[in-house]
Design a protein that fits this description.
about 280 residues, alpha/beta, Rossmann fold, 2 domains, ten-stranded mixed sheet, 9 helices, about 35% helix, about 20% strand
Length: about 280
């Protein structure tokens, strides 16, 4: 069965890098890649009383600019090496990014979103741009893989999976994750901040559930005591030279604890490690 991959683009260098990464990641898999751009005039938002509604010609100009940019991107993508396993679709549409991506995920049975961590603004002072964080937290139908700027694909040898064993796992999304790990025979390092002996009954159940999901994979548990989430995760990734961080984004637990902190910049993790965000079924 062909996998459907959605790749949002703002026509930036970082967005194009995410496209090439996606093609390499699924080089041996039959996939439909949906390269998608949304454009929007903020003054057209409902309830916006501060500015007048855009004129019809402004909508036309926005549509023309988006279409021309998509044609240029299509020409550039078509210059990449051909792969008979891949079918590529290009689409641009008027509307807000999150609404349209949620629509696309449902409409096209999307299994995974792949995008750059930063877009056209490319603010090097922040680890993740606004769009990347918004997609990770608000597009709920599938996981999102965020690829750092200038990151070239390499085989996944080790994946860090930080967890507090409190999440409600989405089996479809976990399956997407395990498929990625299996195709490269990557080792999964399950990282918990705290003592193994301190897990309550619910956490023990979730641990066993994870073991059932990972039963056919190379996985191991790692316990870090007396450390904050941010220090434990980022130090572990840096020390192990891990290739990917995968996590269940439970009520902002991970972003709030890790990626909003200056330690991200000091370790350089934001520029070297892709991140796969899965969803808690309660979010």
């Amino acid at each position: 069965m062909r996998k459907n991959i959605l790749i949002p683009t703002d026509f930036s260098k970082n967005a194009f890098n995410a496209i090439t990464y996606a093609f390499e990641l699924f080089k041996e898999k039959e996939c439909n890649f949906h390269i998608f751009h949304s454009y929007f005039l903020p003054r057209s938002a409902k309830g916006n009383l501060l500015f007048p509604e855009p004129e019809p010609h402004e909508y036309d100009e926005a549509a023309k600019a988006s279409g021309l940019s998509m044609l240029r991107l299509k020409d550039r993508v078509n210059q990449l090496p051909a792969n008979s396993n891949h079918t590529i679709f290009f689409e641009d549409k008027y509307g807000t990014l999150i609404d349209l991506l949620n629509e696309k995920v449902t409409q096209d049975n999307i299994a995974l979103i792949i995008m750059g961590t930063r877009g056209v603004t490319n603010d090097v002072k922040i680890a993740y741009g606004r769009n990347a964080v918004n997609v990770m937290e608000n597009v709920k139908g599938c996981p999102t893989l965020a690829v750092p700027a200038n990151f070239s694909y390499k085989k996944l040898n080790e994946i860090v999976f930080p967890t507090n064993f409190k999440s409600h796992f989405n089996e479809l999304e976990i399956n997407t994750f395990t498929t990625l790990a299996a195709q490269d025979k990557a080792a999964i390092k399950i990282l918990h901040i705290g003592k193994e002996a301190n897990l309550n009954s619910k956490q023990q159940e979730n641990r066993k559930l994870l073991e059932s999901y990972f039963k056919d994979l190379d996985y191991s548990f790692h316990w870090v005591e007396k450390s904050s989430v941010k220090e434990a995760v980022l130090t572990f990734v840096d020390k192990e030279n891990s290739d990917l961080i995968a996590f269940v984004n439970r009520k902002h637990w991970f972003f709030g604890s890790v990626f909003s902190n200056p330690l991200v910049k000091s370790l350089g993790v934001h520029s070297t490690v892709p991140v796969l965000a899965l969803h808690d079924t309660r979010n």
